[in-house]
Amino acid sequence: MPSALHDPAPREYASWTENGEPRQALWGAPSGYPPPRRIQAVDDTLTGDQAFHLANEGTAMLWRGDFQNARQLLTALAHRLDRRKKRRAPAASPHEAFNLHRLAQSQRARLLNSILIQVDAGGVIALRRAVDARDACRDALGEMNESFLLPLRALQGFIGAYEWRRKGVAVPMLEHPIHVHYGVFSPIRGEYLDLVAKAPLPATDIAFDIGTGSGVLAAILARRGVARVVATDRDPRALACARENIDAQGLDGRVELQDADLFPAAACGLIVCNPPWIPARPTSSIESAIYDPDHRMLLGFLDGLAAHLTDGGEGWLIMSDLAVHLGLRDADFLARAIDAAGLQTLGRLDARPRHPKAFDESDPLHAARRQETTSLWRLAAGGPPGPRPA
Asked: Does pLDDT of 387 surpass 90?
């Protein structure tokens, strides 16, 4: 899709037959959601049971009726899925609970994404009582110069993300809210921000922020007195988002952004990284901030850290142990990975989660979440590398 934030990517089109004529439109869903193979035009006469049947047989429904009725139909599908969910047997272990949760999420997304909306060029929706989604579509997709289809649920995600971007996320140690672009991880979990705000600084001349995302950690380091912060990321959306936030915080002269794979080509006395915490495969680009397949970013950071630290420098690794409580990582995996990278642990700061899911007993992963601890590991170069953890 052409985008103001990305290089042009191969276009995908959705095809269907309507009123006896073949039709085609650009597919505008986020990556990870391919165009449906079967599309049927529907309107307000479609019932919830009929829609549920079509969705379960793999037919997507292109909505031609009242926009608000489409929203109600989506809610009706969700209620039917929730009733099915209540009939499931409880998981035997946290690992099984995680796998069942991921499977349920995938199935839910497939069914709920079956209701499609056509959006004209520029983000106009030509339906009765349609919302004005022009700014939200432009923020998520860039300038779209032709008509496109996407799931109603994805459109709602665009609109919600745009409203969150406008509102911003308040961070107590910063003067202004952090405004997060669509597809960039939002700093709504304050415990890891608190850890970076209070850990003793080993150096204040220069620091690296690896995988900066929204730029929030780079901004906190600069506000704490670090004279220069080099923040890296590979995602153009993240770099654009971080630039906007750094400028809004008045830190343009102190934070440098680089398109780099993990480390800049230099060394310094403080290197901070908050990699994805769960070693599983993301199913969409948005999930890449949460899931790190085979610990790729975690191990890449640890293995390269010693070579980029100056004498007496520290690497701060911010990690949750949720994966341990889910049975996705051994309890001693991180300690073995630190040793294998030729590093030593100088200290650790811990924080308990404060986000709502940690206290939601209806959450299928609540048993693991209630045990979760988020830690800031203070690491230093410490000798020859040991054996790499399996």
From this structure: no
